Amino acid sequence: MSAKGLSIINLEKVYPNKYTGDVHAVDDISMEIQPGEFVTLLGPSGCGKTTTLRMIAGFERPTGGDIRLGGESICHLTPDRRDTAMVFQTYALFPNLNVYDNIAYGLKIKKLSRQEIREKVMGILAMTGLEGLESRHTNELSGGQQQRVALARALVMEPGVLLFDEPLSNLDAKLRVQMRTEIRKIQRAVGITAVYVTHDQAEAMSMSDRIVILKDGKIAQMGSPKEVYYHPTSEFSANFIGTANTLRGTVKSQEGNALTASVLGRELAGIPCERSFQPGSECTLIIRPEACSVQEDGLFEAKVTLSTFMGSYQLYELDIDGNRFTVHENNPKTRRIYEPGETAWLDLDIADVHVI
Ligand SMILES: Nc1ncnc2c1ncn2[C@@H]1O[C@H](COP(=O)(O)OP(=O)(O)OP(=O)(O)O)[C@@H](O)[C@H]1O
Ligand SMILES: [Mg+2]
Predict the structure, then answer these.
(1) Which of the four CATH numbers 2.30.40.10, 3.30.429.10, 2.40.50.140, 3.40.50.720 does domain 243-355 have?
(2) Which of 30, 41, 61, 335 is deepest in the core (most CB within 10 A)?
């Protein structure tokens, strides 16, 4: 299998609409995807994920920009002439064919020999855990098995890039988590380039080399899961990836990468900071729920408004001077639990605060 790099260059898709005004579904998106890389397009409904994917696959024609696969522009090619394969949310299997023939379908069209087809299909069946099911009809399979067939059918074509549009959203929660790991394992083993669309941030975090957060057809942020989680560049990114607490502050001073800011009447020094701020300017502190704790004493006095046992953590909601704050206190078994109505203190390590 020869994984290819994918270049998306100033890609644009405008749907004309004379009643509501033109819809800029994809608005000047550029990214370089390396051969073998797993990139996820993540964003809320309507942000342009599917449109981008459909343009890569050739189901939709861009109104601007270019798409290059392995260095060659593919925009003029019909979907069947592109070195791409897509796994759909709805599986889109052929209901009148059995598992084997579903997977073999594309290879038959490519006119491979019966022997070659057999070898490839059997190899993929083993890889996707479908051995023994080859003569079953697709309506005799569970949702998870159907999704495996869809994956096998795409993989067997050995495309330069594999495209996924929310492939797990029809599965129940447990299976979804299991399939994430499996898809990622297979993708790594085969070394195939993958573009994966989801609006589930946990899915994006757990599977991707890189996440592209889209908002209104534009790239809001792009980076590794750790980068986007620990260094969100906007409140939108911070809230889209995980839960984020935000506190407004006023910058007092900055020394290199350490910021001093006044926040809710307290002066906080040594806030890690990557860009430069002018004294007096507004800033927003982003604090993850697991990066703080509820204590006898701490930084900000808080009223506990919610306290829920979640097993691996105690979920708190605090009111700090009218600001709602979420805290995940890990391993609550060993801790004093605060109840709603109690006064407590929010404590945090300044090193875990991110400022934008
Ligand atoms: N064929 C079309 N004609 C007109 N507008 C369209 C068409 N397809 C998509 N759009 C619009 O383009 C925008 C992006 O749609 P797209 O399907 O790419 O979103 P998405 O990010 O995949 O959302 P979801 O998470 O709901 O699947 C939306 O505003 C949508 O209404
Ligand atoms: Mg979509």
Answers:
(1) 2.40.50.140
(2) 41
Q: Which residue's CA lies nearest to atom 13 of ligand 1?
A: 25
Distance CA 281, CA 278 (A): 6
Q: Are 52 and 24 in contact (CB under 8 A)?
A: no
Give the pLDDT confidence of 11-68 residue by residue, as tens digits.
999 999 888 889 999 999 999 999 999 999 999 999 999 999 999 999 999 999 999 9
Architecture of the CATH domain 6-239: 3-Layer(aba) Sandwich (3.40)
Ligand 1, atom 12, residue with closest C-alpha? 25
pTM score of the predicted model: 0.90
What's the burial of 174, exposed, middle or buried (CB within 10 Å: 0-12/13-18/19+)?
A: exposed
pLDDT digits (tens, 9 = 90+) for 304-338: 999 999 998 999 999 999 999 999 998 888 889 99
